[in-house]
Amino acid sequence: MIQVSSTTHARAPPNTIDTGRARKRRRATSDPLNHGPQPRPPASDPIPLQPLFKDPEFWFEDGSIVLVAQGVAFRVYKRILAEHSPFFRDMFQIPQPARMAEVDGCPSVVLTDPAQQLRHLLRVLFPTNGNLVFGKCHGVITMDSVSAVARLSHKYQIDQLLAQALAILTEFYTDNFNEWIKPYRETTLVANSLDAVSAINIAHLTNTPSILPLAFLHATRSGSSIMRGCCRDDSLIEGLAYPDLERLFDGRVMFLQTVSRSVARIFRPQVDPACKESKKCLKVLLEKARSVDECLEALYANPTRVRTWADAFRVPGHPMASRLCECCCDMVEDREQTERQNVWNDIPRMFGLEPVEGWAVELE
After folding, report:
1. CA 153, CA 84: separation in Å to the nearest integer?
2. CA 67 to CA 232: how far, in whole Å?
3. What three-state secondary structure class fits 31?
4. Is 212 left (phi over 0), alpha (psi -120 to 50) or beta?
5. Per-residue pLDDT tens for 118-161?
6. CA–CA distance from 136 to each of 61, 203, 230 (Å)?
7. How far from each other are the two terminal CA atoms of the chain, in whole angstroms?
């Protein structure tokens, strides 16, 4: 259904589109107080719109349809919208009323979407100078862009574009254990901890549960600011539903408790059975166990993954380098790998989520 506004208005300022101004009705001479019924405008007159601002980025003079969002007019091409979106294709096939509002002689459609979010979608559908095609091979993408494209492509049934947006999210909030344990990962999406709010909501909207575990884990870094939500495009506030806030708070406590115990087990003072320098290695492990608070401080500051501490015994120049024998180094690394796998497998449960297909890894 095409939605238009029937509100009358005064003459638009010079930098706006004058979409039709309602004229004052002449009072009947036989009724000086104008008490009687007023004549209706002819059925052929178009319904006037509020003054609209032409979007400087998406106003194509040869465009065939004007999309209106929050008083901003985007003149684009009906054919391209219909080609990619069954929603718009079906809409355009419905016979339109004779009184359908026009903008600069072009038919218009009023949408309920925020103008800036619609602009993100149009940048993908109608690339202009300085705008890149949406996808992994075209550099860094922000959560503002991914969130808007995911939501609107879902709403308007642009499946190919939705799949691209979800691929970017699942790359960042990975469900792959081997990707998670990499010390440094290059991803298309650049996101902060509060951006996980949008990821969680999109995962629910699109039924993509594989995004949820790490999205919740990233959101735990937000602290109390998570209660205020995140700001999209410097104007739109987005928050979490109360059940998700409960999952987040409970899950953070459980995650930190679990990983704290894991760190203690990694450095427990017990040498490898094949160790030939047991006294020296036991002393090093005891020393590390006593300073485990340093590991925990780093963990609490960034609880998005189980950090790599065991390799400190092999890094040249590190205070712990070469202080353990080769057998004990291998033992500590094996312990860490096992603990990481255990923690990974348990993340969905920590945040009260349903089991995620393909999430768990087999313990080595």
Report:
1. 10
2. 21
3. coil
4. alpha
5. 999 999 998 765 544 565 555 678 999 999 999 999 999 999 99
6. 31, 19, 24
7. 57
